[in-house]
Design brief:
This protein is an all-beta fold. About 0% of the residues lie in helices and about 55% in strands.
Length: about 140
């Protein structure tokens, strides 16, 4: 899979994108079962002074996404929070996760097994913060 995003956000904007590229040619060695282990691409929005972040990671190859990981960190590991991860595809709600609680970090994995159209923008947000991390799925 190739996942590219463009630099574009500020600490004041609601969406943050980072640059990442993983191409099909950058495959890792074959897995024990003879298949090719897929690569992972990720993007995070990070608050400059509050040590707070929202992250998304996709695992797959080319336009196929096997799994998607959603994460959110708090200012300290003593902070406890609860929220629901929300996945948007080209600005529309695509999938919601389940209510999750944690201390310092919230994490949830989505089983995807989806083939997406070229240049689809996936954004991940959480219900307790107004920021998103985004990736563009690109062949």
């Amino acid at each position: 899979m190739t996942a590219y995003t463009s630099q574009g956000g500020t600490s004041q904007s609601n969406n943050w994108e980072a640059c990442l590229g993983i191409t099909g040619e950058q495959r890792v060695p074959a897995a024990a079962d003879g298949g090719v282990t897929p690569k992972t691409a990720g993007s995070c929005w990070s608050e400059w002074f509050g040590n707070r972040s929202v992250c998304v990671a996709v695992n797959g190859e080319k336009l196929h996404v096997n799994t998607l990981g959603a994460g959110e960190s708090y200012e300290s590991f003593r902070d406890t929070g609860c929220a629901i991860p929300m996945l948007f595809a080209n600005g529309r709600m695509f999938r919601m996760g389940s209510y999750t609680c944690g201390r310092g970090l919230l994490h949830q994995d989505f089983a995807m097994n989806n083939d997406f159209p070229n240049n689809l923008r996936l954004c991940l947000g959480w219900t307790d913060i107004d920021h998103q991390a985004c990736l563009t799925i690109h062949d």
